[in-house]
Amino acid sequence: MSNDMLEQQLKALLDTTDWLTNAAQTVAFVQQGFEQLNWVGFYLQTSPGWLTLGPFQGKPACNPISFEKGVCGAAATSRQTQRVADVHAFPGHIACDAASRSELVIPIIVKGEVWGVLDIDSPAPNRFSEEDQSTIEKLCHVFIEASEFD
Fold this sequence. Notes:
- This protein is of the alpha+beta class.
- It has a single domain, classed as GAF domain (Beta-Lactamase), CATH 3.30.450.
- It has four helices and six strands.
- It has helices spanning 3-13, 19-33, 70-78, 130-146; strands at residues 39-47, 50-58, 65-66, 82-84, 102-110, 113-122.
- It has a six-stranded antiparallel β-sheet, sandwiched between helices.
- Helix 1 (3-13) packs parallel to helix 4 (130-146) and helix 2 packs antiparallel against helix 4.
- It is globular.
- 39% of the residues are buried.
């Protein structure tokens, strides 16, 4: 399915401005729309330098996560998407699920601040392509545009 089609489908799904509902819908949409994923979820910055578990689909997750740890922390600190082919080779990787082999983490920037990250894990090594990254970054933009944040 094309990027434009996925964006249009998510826009139609996000029929409220409530960020919590939209976050849950976005997670479910990504989980169902992409193959070989074992975890999709948001971590929210609820205090400076820390990410707290938000809406997700998958096994129980690690919580909280410091900006100084793992792929999620690297994305939050750098404000840059992290696409990791082999999480076991990533310094400071947090192994919440030993089955995860690759990871894609997109920082969610709202009003110039790190609101949180969208974390996506796969049991397949090198699962995420540049196209996957671009598509999911666009879906995150749809989520941000549709939502009102406190």
